[in-house]
């Protein structure tokens, strides 16, 4: 009886492991700054029938087999408060996450979809912390009116601009195809 129970448990664990791996997405998606902007990017992906493993406070340990990390930058003091973290803790989490992604061979796409309205001291601190780590950038027009993204991006990194969140799919699709993910 005991052996049958152990075998059944072992079989269940194997099945659960296989199911979890089979359901893994090629895209990990997180917020940098705890604004709702990453949720909007997740909606854009879902509309295109592309699944992403979304977690607002994703950690390096949450990365498991994805090819791309999409880090959506936009600071929100309300969001930080709800997450129980301050600006420095959030920035530390995000830089650590990006470094973990890169150590796993993942590409990192940094997006800023809030435009000019999502800029300011708080967002700029996050932008300054993660843009230099990006492999590609997507910025909504107005969000780079002062040229901050141009100044911070590594020289070999492509930056695409979009008119707004409603039209960001074209830029996002181009990056995903370039990196071998999606349709």
Descriptive notes:
This protein is an alpha/beta fold. The protein has a single domain (24-178), classed as Rossmann fold (3-Layer(aba) Sandwich), CATH 3.40.50. The protein is 44% helix and 16% strand. The protein has helices at 2-22, 37-47, 77-83, 87-103, 121-130, 148-152, 169-178; strands spanning 27-32, 53-54, 68-73, 107-112, 136-140, 158-162. The protein has a six-stranded parallel beta sheet with strand order 2-1-3-4-5-6, sandwiched between helices. Helix 4 runs parallel beside helix 5 (121-130). The relative contact order is 0.15. The model is unreliable at 1-23 (pLDDT under 50).
Give me the secondary-structure topology.
Blueprint: H1 2-22, E1 27-32, H2 37-47, E2 53-54, E3 68-73, H3 77-83, H4 87-103, E4 107-112, H5 121-130, E5 136-140, H6 148-152, E6 158-162, H7 169-178
Parallel strand pairs: 1-2, 1-3, 3-4, 4-5, 5-6
Helix pairs in contact: 4-5
Short description:
With 183 residues, the protein is an alpha/beta fold. It is built from 7 helices and 6 strands. Helix 4 (87-103) packs parallel to helix 5 (121-130).
């Amino acid at each position: 009886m005991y052996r049958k129970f152990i075998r059944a448990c072992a079989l269940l664990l194997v099945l659960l492991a296989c199911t979890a791996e089979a359901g893994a997405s090629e895209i990990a998606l997180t917020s940098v700054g705890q604004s709702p902007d990453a949720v909007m990017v997740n909606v854009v992906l879902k509309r295109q029938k592309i699944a992403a493993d979304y977690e607002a406070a994703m950690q390096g340990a949450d990365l498991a087999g994805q090819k791309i990390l999409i880090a959506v930058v936009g600071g929100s003091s309300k969001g930080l408060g709800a997450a129980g973290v301050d600006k420095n803790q959030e920035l530390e989490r995000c830089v650590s996450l990006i470094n973990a992604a890169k150590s796993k061979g993942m590409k990192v796409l940094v997006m800023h979809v809030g435009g000019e309205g999502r800029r300011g001291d708080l967002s700029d601190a996050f932008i300054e912390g993660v843009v230099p780590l990006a492999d590609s950038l997507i910025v909504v027009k107005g969000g780079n009116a002062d040229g901050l993204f141009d100044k911070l991006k590594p020289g070999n990194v492509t930056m695409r601009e979009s008119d707004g969140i409603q039209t960001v799919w074209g830029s996002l699709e181009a990056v995903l195809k370039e990196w071998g993910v999606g349709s």
